[in-house]
Design goal:
single chain; 416 residues; mainly alpha; Growth Hormone, Chain: A; three-stranded antiparallel beta sheet; 16 helices; globular
Length: 416
């Protein structure tokens, strides 16, 4: 494949993760409008986020196993169409329970698209550029947090929350021809039964890394979920400051995400994962210092975004390096499921109080503890095992004019 062609494919997929991420993150900003429109409580409106997260966590590995033999481009397109349908129905259906059900449908589309987008980009790029490819696709999500969600929230406040859902629907459908026309035709994994497709669930190395993902995202999302509580002293009387904190978090998160891919390729994914977790423990101290000073709060949240989003890419890189050929998409889907599970659990751990400390301080202490414990677990080396693909596996010839990347064939890609 020409040197830079994989990059164009990755950015096409990043367009999709930007749209999916925007639709995912924007709901939190629309809760006041949803509450008023559907005549429900704030807690009930918050369950729209919970329903999406649980739906994604449960459906992601199941759908990955069911669609493992399908062409990757087909899976990506179906995922976008389902996501568009879910958001369209969210805007159209009346009543709270039907709206709740539509968030699960949207989650099914996201669960099909996002893990496959990351796995496909990584395989197209090859082992030496795997980290960079994943970071580009993940950048779509971080940019959606920094720009997409705030813009969607502003549209919802001006035109109603349903207008934002219509916009997300249109953008998702807009990505479909981009994927259909720009992405090469990719074959799925070789024929295998469902039990074989779910084999990674019994792989101890995979299980260990999924545990690392779960604990890391509890640590990362604890201070993010309770950001208004952590920085309550500087936000009281200044509600507009919250937008600045979220914007800085998203911008520096995008930078950290892109740099993490480069560092993972250069220094190894394990080192970057451990460094990001130890660094995250230290930024909890910065947040503690910034609770009473807005300038320090901005500095603290800038480092938090950068370091928090430095974990995701190298962790996916690490999982792909130990996944067996044909299981890449399922492994990334499992990782995504554990990410959403960690996000959900982070809200529960916010109820853990350390001594008589204020809630904002307690959240930071618990987050720091999770980060340091997870760093110790992540430091363990992955021992090579018989039959496992080496981390340096490159594209090997499959047929004239075609190549196989893991379990994905790219017709006519030519030599690298």
């Amino acid at each position: 494949m020409p040197h830079d062609r994989w990059r164009a494919y990755a950015w096409s997929l990043a367009f999709g993760t930007f749209v999916v991420g925007t639709g995912t993150f924007v709901i939190a900003g629309l809760i006041p409008q949803v509450t008023s429109s559907l005549a429900i409580s704030t807690a009930e409106a918050g369950q729209l986020i919970t329903a999406f997260a649980i739906g994604y966590a449960v459906l992601s590995p199941v759908l990955a196993a069911m669609t493992g033999r399908w062409p990757r481009r087909t899976v990506l397109i179906i995922g976008l169409v389902l996501y568009a349908a879910g958001n369209l129905l969210t805007a159209l259906v009346p009543g709270y329970l039907p709206v709740l059900a539509t968030r699960v449908l949207a989650a099914a589309g996201a669960a099909l698209f996002t893990p496959n987008a990351g796995a496909t980009a990584a395989l197209l790029a090859g082992a030496e550029r795997r980290g960079k490819a994943i970071s580009i696709v993940t950048a779509g999500q971080t940019i959606s947090m920094a720009l997409g969600a705030p813009i969607g929230t502003a549209i919802g406040q001006a035109l109603g929350w349903r207008a934002t859902m219509y916009l997300i629907t249109a953008l998702a459908l807009l990505v479909v021809p981009v994927i259909a026309l720009r992405l090469p035709s990719l074959t799925g994994a070789p024929a295998a039964g469902l039990r074989a497709r779910l084999a990674p669930l019994g792989d101890r190395a995979i299980q260990w890394q999924l545990l690392v993902t779960l604990l890391a995202f509890i640590a990362i999302f604890l201070p993010y979920t309770y950001i208004s509580v952590v920085f309550e002293p500087v936000l009281t009387g200044h509600p507009s400051r919250m937008a600045w904190l979220l914007l800085v978090f998203g911008v520096t998160g995008t930078v950290g995400n892109l740099l993490a891919g480069h560092f993972a390729d250069r220094f190894g994914a394990r080192r970057v994962v451990v460094a990001s977790l130890v660094g995250f423990a230290f930024v909890m101290v910065l947040q503690l210092l910034g609770r009473h000073d807005m300038a320090l709060a901005l500095v603290a949240i800038a480092f938090t975004g950068w370091i928090a989003w430095s974990f995701t890419v190298p962790q996916q890189h690490r999982l792909l390096s130990i996944a067996k050929p044909g299981n890449e998409s399922l492994v990334i889907a499992l990782n995504s499921a554990f990410i959403y599970l960690g996000v959900t659990l982070s809200g529960l751990f916010g109820y853990v109080r350390v001594g008589g400390l204020p809630l904002g301080v307690s959240v930071l202490v618990v987050g720091m503890a999770f980060a340091l414990v997870t760093a110790l677990l992540a430091a363990r080396r992955d021992a090579p095992r018989s039959g496992e693909r080496p981390s340096g596996t490159e594209i090997t010839p499959r047929a004239p004019g075609a190549h196989r990347l893991g379990a994905v064939a790219v017709p006519g890609s030519g030599p690298q």
